[in-house]
Amino acid sequence: MNKLICFDLMETLVFPPDSLTLNNWITKKAYFLTGFQKEMFLKGFPYSIFINNIEELNLVKDKLLCRQILNNKDVFDILSVPYNSVWDRITEEYISLFMKNYQFNENIIIMLSKLKENARLCLVSNLYSVYKPLISLLNFDSYFDQILLSCDIMERKPSLKVLKKTKYKAYENRIFIGDNWHSDLIIPIKCGFFACLLDDKNLFINTLYQKGVAFLLEKDEGYKVKRKYKEICFYYLSPILDIDHITADELEIVDNKLYFSFMKRVKIINSLEEIYNIVNEIVWN
User: Fold this and answer.
1) Residue 125 and residue 65: Cα distance in Å, rounded?
2) pLDDT at position 153, please?
3) Residue 48 contacts residue 29 (beta carbons within 8 Å)
4) Is-contact 42 157, C-beta < 8 A?
5) Where are the domains of the chain?
6) What average pLDDT does the structure give for the chain?
């Protein structure tokens, strides 16, 4: 069995409660939240009440994703925030609501069972420890040969250290399936994985696949990314490409459109059925 398939967890296999359920709870119990906090609760972030902007969100992720959180009071201590009983209650109620109403398609179990017959399956997730009970609730230990959770291994994607724990180099055929281009796919692509991106409505990535990449580039002893696109390209394409020195070998023409060569190893997909069909094609052919 020389095949490895890695899955992300949140918003790939498991999704937050539906927006109606969450909005009803917000209206009744957390109506005083800011628009940003409400948005992050809708996306499944359990500590939304502690943040007010993207910078604070990233800071909290850095501090909490690689820890075992025993109770909400630990969060106040770790974040150096004075204890607030309202914040504690809101956080606890949200986590409880999430765990009772998360969305999971039972057909995923059928898919995992079939894939497991011919490949080694690995679950690789940046997961807050409050959501770790999902693993046992969904009986994932029975389907995945290896489970790597940031809260357990004290490392988080996109670190190469996480991917190395899968021993991916031992597998000729390797696939990574996730919903986030930056945290799930950028390092696997660099390491020779085929990647399936569950469409997260990322305008930049979708534009590259629809229009090609010619509009990004200018000639300069080869090619380089135009100045006005450098920041966004550095975020999305580093470390796959040196955006200031792109060779002809790193480009490919398909249907009269110019693409980066690595893009042929990435499929943007929208449904469980597509995941199974594409993985099935890659693994067995």
Assistant:
1) 10
2) 97
3) no
4) no
5) 3-13+104-284, 17-101
6) 92
Cβ-contact 85, 76 below 8 angstroms: no
pLDDT band at 278 (very low <50, low <70, confident <90, very high): confident
Give 16 or 117, the one with higher predicted confidence: 16
Rounded (10°) angle between helices 19-29 and 85-101: 160
* Burial call 172-198: b when 16+ CB within 10 Å, e when fewer: ebbbbbbbbbebbbbbbbbeebbbbbb
pLDDT in tens, 253-263: 999 999 999 99
* Cα-only R_g, the chain: 20
260: tokens are 């980066």
Structure tokens at 280: 């099935």
Give the pair of three-digit tokens for residue 115.
Answer: 């894939």
Question: Which residue in the block uniquely carries the two structure tokens 């597509």?
Answer: 274
- The dihedral of CA 17, 20, 21, 27: what is its sign? positive
**Total residues found in the chain within this entry:** 285
Q: How far is the CA of 262 from the CAs of 42, 134, 186, 209, in angstroms? A: 33, 34, 11, 12
pLDDT tens across 36-66, in order? 999 999 999 999 999 999 999 999 999 999 9
Would you say 137 and 106 are in contact if contact means Cβ atoms under 8 Å apart? no
Amino acid at residue number 100: K
- In what helix (H) or strand (E) does residue 38 lie, and over which residues does it extend? helix 35-42
Count how many Cα atoms sit within 13 Å of the Cα of residue 44 in the half-sphere of its side chain: 19
Q: Which CATH class is domain 3-13+104-284?
A: alpha beta
**Three-state SS for 278?**
helix
Task: Report residue 283's pLDDT band, with 50, 70 and 90 as the boundaries.
Answer: low
What is the three-state SS of 65-133? CCCCCCCHHHHHHHCCCCCCHHHHHHHHHHHHHHHHHCEECCHHHHHHHHHHCCCEEEEEECCCHHHCH
Query: In terms of Cα–Cα distance, which of 198, 202, 256, 208 is closest to 229?
Result: 208
